[in-house]
Amino acid sequence: MRRREFTLDPAVAAELEALEAALAGDPAAEPELAALVRDVRAEAPTMEPAARARLDRRVERGFVSPLPRRRFALRPLIPALGVAGCIVAAIVAIALSARGGNDDFVSSRGGGGASVTSQARPESSDAAKSSSGSGSGSAGSSSSSPALATPAAPARQRRVERSTRLELTTTDVQKASDGVVRATQAAGGFVQSSQVSTGDGRSTSSFVLRVPTSRLDDALARLSKLGHVKSLQQSADDITGAYDSASGRLTEARAERRGLLRALDHATTAEQVSSLRARIADNRRELQRYQRDFNAVRNRASLATVGVDVTGVARKQATAPSDGPWTPGDAAHDAVRVLEVSAGVALIALAVLLPLGLVGAAGGFAAVTLRRRRREAALSA
Fold first, then answer.
1. Domain identity same for 162 and 263
2. SS3 for 331?
3. Which residues, listed in sequence order, are joined to residue 191 by a DSSP beta bridge?
4. Which of 24, 100, 313, 381 is the most buried (most CB within 10 A)?
5. Structural domain of 254
6. Order of strands, edge to edge, in the sheet holding 228-238?
7. Residue 224 belongs to some domain of the structure
8. In a domain, 331, yes or no
9. 79 and 23 share one domain
10. What is the pTM of this model?
């Protein structure tokens, strides 16, 4: 059975190529890597002849295991899981249609509720140019026919830039501002800029935070506890095209540098050497610029931007309800809305994972059939 192939990051692939060139003794290899290879080989212990002979015999045999390993066959269950997922998705869709819910994310009572909006900006023109030929690729696409038509095409990793705007009201702005800094540090982020204004009048503070995208939800949960959430806005921007474009330019510049170094090593005249040195200097400046661009795009994907505005209010204004006490009916309504939102999220997840599950089921069935036929042919022989 063939091993599953993974696509390496272009930057990692370039570094591996440089290391292979140093191991092979290529004159155009990186001087630091070449020196490291020489030092390691000088310090490496010598292998005994008997051990080398045993290793050579194992290599000739192909490292065949004496006993085959028995693994639990999970692939035959994949079609059944796919059918069960279709049934659950149909039940959820019927329930949502009968409910007829609106597009609000969280119910609001008067002016005291928290409104959450989600926005998605289309990919920039530069990103669209670099990602041409890879399909429509929209995050919200619900069509599964292209995935079923081309099951062999691997889906590339999407790079998404997330940004959030949070408005809080509290009676102690200074305490809430200190809590913002602590919550950011606890999530592994940092404060990019801050402005705090306190006095006898109205106190305010504003922050621009950079938080790891993987810890964004945890950071928002901590920040929401610092005061009353007046509003929360979230947006996501697909920057996969920009990321691939920056990575491609950096890889091409590194390849050009290796080619120039090889040409310089084979140059015979002073004119050729001078021309190649000038081109290498220009290439070095391009490498620095492309590296900065790539780092900037990578940080946009790995670090989310969180804007926090804290506004001070009087104690009576902060504690007085806007439209009366919170009744059990309000609690039941909010519970229903939470269930509807959870069902919608589950439906979207099933819509995304169902085509992948069907493709995986087909591939697993084909692999099991092929392995059975090979086994039968071996037994017959």
1. yes
2. helix
3. 209
4. 313
5. 110-133+156-325
6. 115-121, 228-238, 160-170, 303-312, 204-212, 190-197
7. yes
8. no
9. no
10. 0.38
